[in-house]
Amino acid sequence: MQLEQKLHEMHIELENLVWDKKELQEHFQMAVKERKMMEILLAELEEEHDMAIANIEKLEGKVKFISCLMLLAVRLLRLSL
Q1: d(CA 7, CA 43)
Q2: How far, in Å, CA of 51 to CA of 59, rounded?
Q3: From the centroid of its chain, how far is CA 58?
Q4: What is the pLDDT along the chain (81 residues), one digit of tens a residue?
Q5: Cβ burial 58-76 (10 Å sphere, 16+ → b, else e)
């Protein structure tokens, strides 16, 4: 009888381990999916960052150009006075 009891306990423990393994596999699969989503989001953010940097550089160029035009206009005004 003691052997049967031990066997029964081991069977229950095995079922619990199988259930735990299944839950761990589900958590792992969810973590893998979340990681893939994070990689996609990171790639999108990097692309947006690159575009923002390009826009900033373009605007900096425009500001420099306008500054040069204003300086030229001031010099021309001084010459005409």
Answers
A1: 54
A2: 12
A3: 26
A4: 799 999 999 999 999 999 999 999 999 999 999 999 999 999 999 999 999 999 999 999 999 999 999 999 999 999 887
A5: eeeeeeeeeeeeeeeeeee
